[in-house]
Give the backbone structure.
Amino acid sequence: MLPAVEAAILHPSVRSRLASLAIAYEAMPCDPALADTAAFVAAYGVPPERSANTIVVASKGAAPTYVACVLLATTSLDVNNVVRREMGVRKASFAGADAVREVIGMEIGGVTPFGLPDEMPILVDARVMEPPWVILGGGNRSSKLKIAPDALRALPSVRVVEGLAVIR
């Protein structure tokens, strides 16, 4: 398991949000080259069923809308069915790295629900809520966040959704 370190390694918006909500967490360092899920779980020995990804999805069209989806590394996001329906749009796809940086100011591999814009909906697959703790991105590729999943409920725009993701 990763050693706990100072919260300063987390993205500033993430630190601020966690502090404002008085949420208990552990900040952990991560080699930026190992921030993507497969490399991260292999290098740091975190079980995939405890590693949660936050993926930004965009609606298709001239003025896209965005939603953040949280799912376990052992699952895949059901973008074309459940996510699209939850967004209320005809077509949706994964947001590109440039859009993610522009809209939320985070890098893919470090995206976390904590520190997102208040108006961005956050959909959480129900499986994420089952273990006692999960690892999320720290808002950048050089940190991770160990947290009790129930802490996600403190965010005003979170909705837990059954079947948001499917088991791989």
Remarks:
- The chain is about 20% helix and 25% strand.
- The chain has one domain: 7-154.
- The beta strands are 26-29, 52-59, 66-72, 75-77, 92-94, 122-125, 134-137, 143-147, 158-161, 165-167.
- Residues 7-154 form a domain with the YbaK protein fold (CATH 3.90.960.10).
